[in-house]
Amino acid sequence: MRVTVTTEFRYLATADGAVWSPSSLAYPFWSRYLAVFDQVRVVARVQSATRVPATYLRCDGDRVSFAPLPPYQGPFQYL
Description:
Layout: E1 2-13, E2 19-21, H1 27-31, E3 39-48, E4 57-58, E5 64-69, H2 74-78
């Protein structure tokens, strides 16, 4: 069984498709759902980045994937 989770948190993604976070909302957080579900898909705003700071944590991984939304903020960036 799969689960899709949405969050307002914003992530960075590198060209290789890896998703990164400066907070605790990284892979260990999302992998908790794997105790119940076979796969986890996170729907979140993801911005492209060429590099990420060394302190950032990897968020995607085995059976945890991301469905990126555009990283706009507010109605004017949406237009």
